[in-house]
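Something for you to look into today, if you have time. Could you write out one complete protein record for me, on any chain you like? Leave the record below and I will have a look.
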Amino acid sequence: MSRCLPHQAYVSRSLFFRLETWYTKELGEQLVAADGLAMGLLGLLITRQDEAIFDTWCQDQLPFYDAVVCLDGSTNSATAEIAARYAPRLIYLHERDFEILHKTDHGLRRIVQAEITRRFGPGHWIMCCHVDEFCYHDPRKIMALAERQGYDLVSWFSPHFYPHPAERTDWPVRQTWPVPHRHRYYHWGHVNTGFPWIEDRLYRDGPGVVWDNHTHGSVRPHGLQRAAPFHPIFCHYKVIATNLDWYELVGNRTYYEHHWVGLEHRTGLAFPVQCLDDLFVTAVPNYHICDRFDGFFSQPWNLGEEFRPDPERHPLLFPVPSELRTKTEDVSSVPTSRPLDSGVVRRRRIAIGPENPAFGSWNWLGVDLGQALAQPYDVEFFRDSIPGTDLLIFIKFLPAVETLRDLRQRSRIVYCPVDLYGSAAELDGDWERLRCCDLIVSHSQSLLPYLQSYAPTISLDHHLKYVVPTRNQVIDSGSILWVGERSNLAPVVAWVNAHRLPADLIVLTNAPLQTTPTELGFQTPELVQVVPWSPESHREWLMRCRAAIDIKGQDFRAHHKPPAKALDFLASGIPLAMPHDSGPAQHLREQLGFELAAPDDLERWLSPDYALACQRFGRRLTQSHSLDYLSQRWNELLADLLRPV
């Protein structure tokens, strides 16, 4: 186990794991291999000239593992000297002591895998470690989850952290901090997937699992059979040193000077770096979202906080301890006030409208957004007369193009076209008004290709509104719930008339009190109950129903509807069924990583497993889609628009 042992000696895995026994809350029992011996978690680490971060990584990440076998290719002794402080848990090897045919991803890991097997035997879980990657989720808990569900490979989400211009001001102080404290901004949304980059990292050793001698650009051994469908997170810090000698500029890319020299797949930065300021970026190629990290990922792709390390066992390096904070650290937010000529500071003014309580989009978005923004800004609502303010937010309806052109002379214009356009031709016909907008905020990801040619456009989901606390138990009886405008009922009626639901249907809509199911077109009125909608009745039925259903039409407007109701159902922990080809179902699958059950797949829709999956996803939504969180995103967008040119 230790380099101080004779070369031919090693600690057997049975002895080692009797000494290093561990238990997981996930399984509630010790994990064991097929032969009955304790199963371990081992790190496979290759490194070269990474002494700038090696000590930080060992302090923070080494406690996750029973042992880490490290193969170093450095040309100096700095890494070896650091490694000596972490023996015997860190087992240090150097490339010069081995015959390595090809110094590739597979060629080097093949050496380390052989050492792991020689020292501890086969059959353990192995994590491919990099010293610039810090686990957000506990690999022990992830290993236990994968083992329980029968998977042998887990790929991890890898949000990429880069220095940000907001961190440049106090850089003389910040550069003395550990790397995970220096950089707080991460990039994701890889090539519009809606997810971070994904990396193969954790695998179960077994018969037929091998690394070859030559493959590069792949961190997955051959012979694995079942990849897990879930993805935990590690933070990848792309810039661990700001010494320009550490980088090599080649064309429009910047490579790490000492990494994978002479190989086609070299690692580095996807943009040119010629001076220190070039390392501080707001955007990087192929990633369209940059967010600030303040201790946790409020994103729907976050597997869950229950898989984080237990603080008492492993206090992670983030969030930044208070003693490392400076007054200038949080300079990312733009001041929401500006000085007048007299020196008196006034708050920026925002107007939101036109007020129209008859539309759900106004009640859902306009009112709540205005209240959420009232603290940093002076907010007012308008109906007919448009006030002169620093910024105008139009919900659903825009004024005439002449009015917009006049307003744009003195105000920034933001437009939210919620459920407005009935066809692509209708949208294109509105090009003059759309081009008057400084920003379009679409609540439907699928509308972006239609809008973004006319004005800067982003997609932002509605916040959760009609929700109850996420369920923590499975309800196996009760009614099926549908909620919506009466004008959207036709496809629901057609579907229910063609299929038999497994329970009575509650139709919660804006129909008059005495409306009957027959009047709405239902052919089995005895199985349908029509209930007038109100916020109170909505939440009451969320508490009572067994499951929910939503059927959209096939027209342009229906296909591009935002997934607001679906998010509310799921945040409440209610098993929701929706046809897979509907716009909201596609959004949940492609942007948020959740596959809804189809309404004709009763076995999945009403299963306990699906109910629990909806609850887990719902708990994540209560963070990532809360009004507080999404209003912060709004504030960032508006701050950028109001930034002085």
